[in-house]
């Protein structure tokens, strides 16, 4: 049996990390989950979620003109609102509506100074008017800061699980004030009775780590194992789902596995599914090939025992070998949102779409 052929996603107890008696067990389970599954549930995390979850239906219930006021096309930083049907994955429409809202960041790029274009990828979020949704901005900012802290602490544990000092991956981040991580609040509408539709098609995440809050009790998230079977990742109350992005897979020489995943829309009569992913980035100027980690041979053996990762249904992700991570990221965003690019990155838009905007936009 190939050990990577998992049939469920493991549940890890984050509370075990606070005692030296239970931490080794956590590290052992983490090592297995990272190498063989690429997905895990994390229970007992120090993040308050109730306040944010309560706001989500109200956010989507805002009048359409309030949402359109903060449409992503306004933002050079690809932050803001996207209406239903704005993205495609694997040639099919993704049936979801979403707000991209990121951690606080002051954009470093200065117009006309010749800064790299990808420095403009990060910047301030767009928010609904305070009086239309009182307290939402504060609640979301508080939430993002808590998940940001969790994500940095988790990276330390991940390094330990791979036999490295806990700060071994610090080299992939910029100074904290120069970092930005991206959150999204997503609504997947229910489909007509008896029909199935793509919430989001098969894909890998691009960055380092994703921390996903499943904010309603719908099934729908699925991950793909080596045989190609789709495994359900149903919501477990009080947990986050953590998964690995392509950049971390590359940086760890394939030790941490990026796993293909998708969302099936909720069926008719069950109401919309809500989720809040948080994508942890690495520094914009980091070139992954310039940061080679030295893993102990016994850890590398665990990767080799897993076997090679075969083809999946997912579209493949970017090349991290040549370009700074920000550039790789920017190209991904331009392909997903050509309307934003046409307005804010006209030169890059022309390079990527010499014949004008494509009829179908690829989200991944
Ligand atoms: O909504 C979810 O459960 C997953 C979303 C996802 O995979 C993504 O946006 O990258
Ligand atoms: Fe994803």
From TrEMBL:
GO terms for molecular function: metal ion binding; oxidoreductase activity. Keywords: Iron, Metal-binding, Oxidoreductase. It holds the Pfam family 2OG-FeII_Oxy. The keyword Oxidoreductase applies. Signal peptide: none annotated. It comes from the Eukaryota. Residues 175-282 form the Fe2OG dioxygenase domain. PROSITE patterns: FE2OG_OXY. InterPro entries: DIOX_N (IPR026992), IPNS-like_FE2OG_OXY (IPR044861), IPNS-like_sf (IPR027443), Oxoglu/Fe-dep_dioxygenase_dom (IPR005123). Belongs to the iron/ascorbate-dependent oxidoreductase family. PANTHER family: 2OG-FE(II) OXYGENASE FAMILY, PUTATIVE (AFU_ORTHOLOGUE AFUA_2G00750)-RELATED, OXIDOREDUCTASE, 2OG-FE II OXYGENASE FAMILY PROTEIN. This is Fe2OG dioxygenase domain-containing protein.
């Amino acid at each position: 049996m190939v050990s990577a052929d998992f049939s469920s996603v493991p549940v890890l107890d984050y509370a075990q990390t606070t005692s030296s008696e239970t931490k080794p067990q956590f590290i052992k389970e983490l090592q297995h989950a990272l190498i063989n599954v690429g997905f895990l549930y994390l229970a007992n995390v120090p993040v308050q979620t109730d306040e944010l979850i309560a706001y989500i239906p109200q956010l989507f219930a805002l009048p359409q003109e309030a949402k359109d006021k903060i449409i992503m096309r306004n933002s050079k930083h690809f932050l803001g609102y996207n209406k239903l049907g704005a993205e495609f994955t694997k040639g099919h429409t993704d049936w979801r509506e979403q707000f991209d809202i990121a951690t606080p960041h002051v954009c470093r790029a200065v117009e006309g100074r010749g800064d790299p274009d990808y420095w403009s990828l990060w910047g301030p979020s767009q928010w609904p008017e305070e009086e239309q949704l009182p307290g939402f901005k504060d609640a979301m900012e508080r939430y993002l800061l808590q998940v940001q802290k969790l994500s940095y602490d988790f990276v330390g544990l991940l390094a330990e699980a791979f036999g490295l000092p806990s700060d071994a991956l610090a080299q992939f981040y910029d100074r904290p004030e120069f970092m930005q991580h991206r959150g999204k609040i997503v609504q997947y509408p229910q489909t007509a009775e008896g029909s199935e539709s793509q919430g989001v098609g098969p894909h890998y995440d691009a960055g380092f780590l994703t921390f996903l809050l499943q904010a309603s009790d719908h099934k729908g998230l699925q991950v793909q194992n080596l045989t190609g079977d789709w495994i359900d990742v149903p919501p477990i109350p009080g947990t986050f789902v953590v998964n690995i992005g392509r950049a971390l897979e590359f940086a760890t020489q394939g030790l941490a596995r990026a796993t293909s995943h998708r969302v099936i829309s909720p069926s008719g009569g069950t109401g919309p599914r809500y989720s809040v992913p948080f994508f942890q980035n690495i520094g914009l100027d980091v070139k992954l090939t310039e940061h080679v980690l030295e893993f102990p041979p016994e850890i590398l053996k665990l990767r080799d025992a897993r076997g090679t990762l075969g083809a999946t249904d997912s579209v493949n992700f970017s090349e991290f070998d040549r370009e700074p991570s920000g550039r790789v990221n920017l190209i991904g965003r331009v392909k997903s949102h050509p309307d934003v690019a046409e307005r804010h990155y006209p030169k890059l838009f022309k390079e990527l779409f010499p014949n004008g905007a494509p009829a179908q936009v690829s989200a991944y």
